[in-house]
């Protein structure tokens, strides 16, 4: 009975309905196939489970040693048991071949199957070539013994120093650092980076939610930190000078020499356009937005350079061409002459001009209201983001903004769709988390802040030691609510073709034409995920609820 009282009422209802849910999935082939597709279970992925579990137990028990050895609540017996379990799992990883299939799957899914020579072309799920598999085995022959040796050495230093020295001894610190780095990095890799073939859909959803939540919390703290900045006359002068500097830089880019272009030929066919022609001129020619243009849209064809475009005109492949004036051959009728700034200088000039306008407005607003310009900017960003629908933010960041970033960096920065979705959700939720953080900070009595300053603490020490610990206890419930919300809203990332639970549900429903099984399976699984998150939050609330102690 005590166990039932400790269970949340909502979870108790799910536990009551759990036998029916298990029976539904066990007795219906449609629901089994739906759940398999939604979870992202690949063919033959059962062979990867033992290796994943071996690494999970090894890394998890290594981290547990440090958790159970904390000075605040030491549990030496549990720490020793975790160390024994870690060594047993590490020995299993070293002596057995169970981990190799899993690591082979991770490597095969970490490379581009179209361009990499490490995977066999045309196979699904991906499989390493024989040469790549032998190379991986050679790496494992060095990596696994090194992990076992480092873990064993770390335990010897950690537990050996604890017997004869103080807990703060250098040897104990070195041992803890070795255990923490090796096992922590391994645990982080297999849980948040490595491909999980037997639960790819779930891994994508959970990883996206956690990454977006943590990034949103960091950005939200930045917004709150900017709100706490104080106004000074020196600040206005510095920002005014920065505005002037941005204006001069924008003017320098926008006043660069223009390139003369000529549209020559006849308009009764296709028009040739050379690469790197300003986009404004391309649109003007294509849609007839120049003097004397016909009323209908013109067919255009892009060529690498003026020489290729002129050669195409000589072969009658095109009837006109938009070329730099220096490259126009003689004897052609000139239809339009103009001059334009190249796209690179134009984009840079517009960017700096926009930044100058924004910074100028913030500086002027800060001067009027005697507030720091960055505080006004933070307030504006938070209010603006909260007014834009989540789907619009995901689409904007995932498509045009990322495309513009790729073009501006000449393809150097081209984040994958999952990263774009994570950044979009983090930006969207950072505004809500910022308001939660601000409310928690404002709930701390001003007297505590004054007392902290009276004993010599600076602003950073006051925030870290006095304000934030108390504010965290206050904002745990709303923070938990945002975690559940962001876990559900990861379904919006399917619009970017990210193969999370929702995207896999849509793919399976389109292929199977089942009316209810895919949607019911996805809904039930989302319920279990959110209830698990709610239980975790409830546990944290009980741990930090000091009012009832």
UniProtKB/TrEMBL annotation:
Pfam families recorded: BPD_transp_1
Role according to the record: Part of the binding-protein-dependent transport system for glutamine; probably responsible for the translocation of the substrate across the membrane.
PROSITE patterns assigned to the protein according to its UniProt record, in alphabetical order: ABC_TM1 (PS50928)
Chain ranges of the ABC transmembrane type-1 domain: 342-537
Species this protein is from: Sinorhizobium kummerowiae
This protein's record includes keyword Lyase: no
Transmembrane segments: 12-28, 48-68, 142-162, 174-198, 210-229, 236-255, 348-368, 388-405, 417-434, 523-540
Protein family (similarity comment): Belongs to the binding-protein-dependent transport system permease family. HisMQ subfamily.
Cited Gene3D superfamilies: MetI-like
UniProt-recorded name of the protein: Amino acid ABC transporter permease
Organism superkingdom: Bacteria
CDD domains: TM_PBP2
